[in-house]
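worker-3 :: picked Prepilin leader peptidase/N-methyltransferase
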Amino acid sequence: MSGWNMWVPFAVPLAALFGLLVGSFLNVVIYRVPLMMEREWTLFAKTHLGQTPTAAELQPFNLIKPDSCCPQCQSPVRAWQNIPVISYLLLGGKCGSCKMPISKRYPLVELLTAALFALVAWQYGWSWLTLGGLVLTAMLVALAFIDADTQYLPDQITLPLLWLGLLFNWNGGMVSLQSAVAGAVAGYLSLWLLCWLYKLATGKIGMGGGDFKLLAALGAWLGIGALPVVVFLAALIGIFAAAAMRVGKGQQFAFGPSLAVAGWLVFAANQQVAAAIGWWLRASGF
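worker-3 :: tokens ->
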């Protein structure tokens, strides 16, 4: 066994380990990107209204700066305190300085990302499909949690995800480029049209533009043939999630996580989904 082949048996554990590291970074993305968006909107509004931003609003705030610290005591997070999962266990789930509890979601996001990375590697082995799947998985995890927290689906993630899907399928990574482009267009326009008709009938906006872009991105990755399956699964997931959370009538509910979960499931089970779609097309005479 030589070259790349020697790494094939280690694809799943390496993907899981890499997932832990990526999950740690995703925690930063999930927390900071919405704040970055809100700061950008505030600065934009103040500039156009002729107001002077505060010194705090002018300080750099991105995925790198400022350094991570405890929100309670401002104690910096040291390198040994930033090891995925292990640091959380060593610290007993509390800040090393002020003993403020650390959210359990931090290690859970790391473990979730590791598990999803491992499943992608198990499904597709040591291949370009796995590499693309890891990128798709990471971005979907970030989008799902950001939307669940804030009902934002940031363009900073959805639009790169769309273009990466088209590039991934440039030479038929998962589907043909023609199917990927058609999927991106159909994904966006289908939800946009549905939202437009809903607004026309009720006078209310039923869905945000971020959902249109996320489905367009999934169409770019999975192709136009997978879109009906993605939408159907997302609707089922959304119904169960709304029932579990007891979402009341008129209460806003983030649909992005349902789309993200459905899109990942279709990607992970691509061969089975493709076989089911092929059977349906043959059975229906198309």
